């Protein structure tokens, strides 16, 4: 193992630094990817509240279980083996029960688990013999009910009072289609099920289902019925709320709506007896949640106005706090819907459509929009309008938002209101754009390039091509785009454009700093040192095969995502180059399996934030940052004696890499633990990287010394065996 900690100095201070050097070991033995845990937002798959007030939620992106012990103020992510695809959660007393899917389609199975406390071990509950579990419910006393069956036995409802040790078949399933059987056990241990357009409860004494015909339960994600202490039942049937009075065996409609412009009806009976109904008002851009409350058992209703822009699903209640699912986000209300608070702080977003970096600022499009100004350490969540698209968005330093959603639109007030540019006409559809602080350049699908210097108020057509251009980037103030078989560029912020022929490439990706790199669809890298006038193919090795995504740091570091297309491998790596694409090393390390094993779509976004931090979107696992990417420091040309040295480990434990930049050349020497010279090399003028083979070197403290023109830089490192 190699531990590195570099310092910069000269010969005069070297001895004092060595004398003071007591421990070179860094807290990170090797740099690690860190998940951005403060970014809010998961899509709620299911939610449960235990009797002790512990909140549990599962992500629809198959990311395991989250729990909160402080009313959702903060959340902890549990990662348990085989507990990813959680289908259903339910709470019984202090315990949590859940249903996990193992695969989908023919041959798939489902298992029930129990969790006593948030920190206890997952307990797997044995399934009924000869039955595949489809749905389940748990009662307050710990009794478990499950629907299941196979080809040899009919679909049934099974019951176990000893945590799955033994099961008995209680009754046939309410519906022959077992997958459509919703299942719930109320406070009186009565089993409810809904399917085929009606709801029923099981009369255990009679051994039959009692169907309430016409009381359809639809649209809600869970069986939404409540039974009062006197046996009266309240039901959400998708378009109205109905009460069944036990004393008279009669039904009463408490609330009804058949207006098609309203969203499906959601309903909750509060512990204090109040009834709440949720709908969404019509209108795609002006919609908001309409809450109605009744304190007299549905005789009269009052309207509650909210600022929520999408419908809500009622999830659970504890100590007067009602938790709701709001577009995949958890919100809580303590005043029956008068006000809501988001309760997803600390739940990291898993499904990120797009992110953009500008220096230390990161902008993320997920279930909520999030902006970080400190490289992802903290986040703000602007209150934006609905209906936004993840097709591409950029923000300039003055707070202007530019977005391509099939047409181009601009917001000058923090995304609260938008202006469609050119009215969304198809002939002016945008293929790519670049929003800089002083100019915005748009490449139209019609081949016209337009620019604006007043935040999109007025536009000037500056260039016309036969076909649309793509991949618009900025390199040291110059603008570049790929157009068919040529590279078009502008050195005056888009006013005039010139062109140069490209190599025989198609669907190429372009990036650059002092050196332009071009990635062809066949995976070949091409480089240009003369602003694209001429191109040279770079060496093609195994590590550079399958590159799909590029990123470039302002200091000259290149990063990419590669995919190993070897049959059966399906491995993805993040690779980095410090020598303009001539050599690469992998820094995948501890990225989660969903990134490296190919189970999901590969990460679509890769970007640098300063200083030396790389950000990657890992499929359905969210954002990860890598803060130990070595800096490439270029010597100022013409300054004799200027010297720069970078030192970093490789992915193996037997090599060390270093990079030297010196206009007049440099001498590099390595001294071992006893002071003996272990390595010596002369470096030519310019910038170059080398690899030290340390396989046969003993463990201990080493010093790598580079000298040029009277300047000396020393970097210490430690080898551990």
Structure overview:
The structure is a single chain. The chain is mainly beta and 721 residues long. It contains two helices and 63 strands. The strands form 16 sheets. The chain has a five-stranded antiparallel β-sheet with strand order 1-63-62-59-60, with no helix packed on it. Strands 2-56-55-54 form a four-stranded antiparallel β-sheet, with no helix packed on it. A hairpin with a 6-residue loop joins strand 12 and strand 13 (156-160). The relative contact order is 0.09.
Alpha-carbon Rg, integer: 31 Å
- What is the overall pLDDT average? 78
Strand order of the largest sheet: 1-63-62-59-60
What is the helix content?
A: under 10%
The structural class is mainly beta
Largest sheet: 5 strands, antiparallel
User: Which residues sit in consecutive blocks of at least 5 with pLDDT less than 50?
Assistant: 1-30, 597-602, 633-641
Beta-strand residue percentage: 35-45%
What secondary-structure arrangement, pairings included, does this model have?
Elements: E1 2-4, H1 11-20, E2 34-35, E3 44-49, E4 55-59, E5 65-68, E6 76-78, E7 86-92, E8 95-102, E9 109-115, E10 123-125, E11 132-138, E12 144-149, E13 156-160, E14 168-172, E15 182-185, E16 191-195, E17 198-203, E18 208-212, E19 225-227, E20 233-236, E21 240-245, E22 250-256, E23 266-269, E24 275-280, E25 289-294, E26 302-305, E27 312-318, E28 321-326, E29 329-333, E30 341-342, E31 354-358, E32 361-365, E33 369-372, E34 393-395, E35 401-404, E36 408-411, E37 419-420, E38 430-435, E39 440-444, E40 448-452, E41 460-464, E42 470-475, E43 478-483, E44 486-490, E45 498-501, E46 509-512, E47 516-519, E48 525-528, E49 536-537, E50 547-552, E51 558-564, E52 571-577, E53 585-586, H2 593-596, E54 606-609, E55 613-617, E56 623-626, E57 644-649, E58 655-662, E59 666-671, E60 677-683, E61 686-693, E62 700-708, E63 711-719
Antiparallel strand pairs: 1-63, 2-56, 3-4, 4-5, 5-6, 7-8, 8-9, 9-10, 11-12, 12-13, 13-14, 15-16, 16-17, 17-18, 19-20, 20-21, 21-22, 23-24, 24-25, 25-26, 27-28, 28-29, 29-30, 31-32, 32-33, 34-35, 35-36, 36-37, 38-39, 39-40, 40-41, 42-43, 43-44, 44-45, 46-47, 47-48, 48-49, 50-51, 51-52, 52-53, ...
